């Protein structure tokens, strides 16, 4: 796909910001080494290069981390509340919300099983809710509601308002898709 321009731009930006040639970070349940000299992002759990879309998210996060991450606001925003998302709403729903509903909609409490393998905690939101620490300083709230006689099950992904200073809209869609596939 067309990730090459975005990846190269991110590598160039990291080269300007980092004195180190290797950086390490945790993303969800995996540790990654970022080799600036050889321009590789390696999953340490699998010992394989990260997929391009994952590498871009990691590189963009590292750029912001080196510049200084914003403070968490404690204000949760739905994807619809982020600015400039109109064209991304169908993709966001298809890539992130619908897979969560398919997997957990009939039994929302089963999402709590991710607490054993991911950096997450249970919260009192919806019928079942968890806050997942995707990266350090980037929490994501996932809420599920049981279906009833009138409505089917529903889910939502909420973001701390600070995410808008870390990722662009497209990155947030990709991040939500990675989360949905990994939980």
Explained architecture:
A hairpin with a 2-residue loop joins strand 1 (22-27) and strand 2. Strands 5-9-8-7-6 form a 5-stranded antiparallel beta sheet, covered by helices on one side. Strands 1-2-3-4 form a 4-stranded antiparallel beta sheet, with helices on one face. The two termini are 25 Å apart. By secondary structure, the protein is of the alpha+beta class. Helix 1 (4-17) packs parallel to helix 2 (52-67), helix 2 (52-67) packs across helix 4 and helix 3 runs parallel beside helix 4. The chain has 2 domains: 4-67, no CATH class; 76-182, no CATH class. The protein is built from 4 helices and 9 strands. It is 33% helix and 26% strand.
């Amino acid at each position: 796909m067309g990730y090459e321009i975005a990846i190269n731009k991110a590598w160039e930006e990291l080269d300007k910001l980092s004195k180190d040639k290797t950086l390490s970070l945790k993303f969800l349940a995996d540790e990654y080494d970022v080799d600036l000299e050889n321009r590789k992002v390696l999953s340490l759990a699998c010992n394989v290069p990260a997929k391009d879309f994952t590498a871009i998210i990691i590189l963009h996060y590292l750029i912001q981390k080196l510049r200084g991450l914003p403070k968490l606001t404690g204000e949760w925003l739905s994807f619809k509340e982020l600015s400039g998302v109109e064209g991304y709403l169908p993709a966001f729903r298809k890539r992130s919300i619908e897979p969560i509903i398919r997997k957990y909609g009939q039994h929302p409490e089963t999402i709590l099983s991710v607490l054993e393998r991911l950096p997450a905690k249970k919260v009192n939101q919806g019928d079942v809710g968890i806050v997942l620490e995707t990266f350090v300083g980037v929490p994501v709230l996932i809420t599920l509601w049981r279906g009833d006689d009138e409505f089917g099950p529903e889910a939502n992904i909420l973001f701390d308002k600070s995410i808008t200073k870390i990722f662009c809209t497209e990155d947030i869609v990709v991040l939500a898709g990675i989360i949905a596939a990994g939980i």
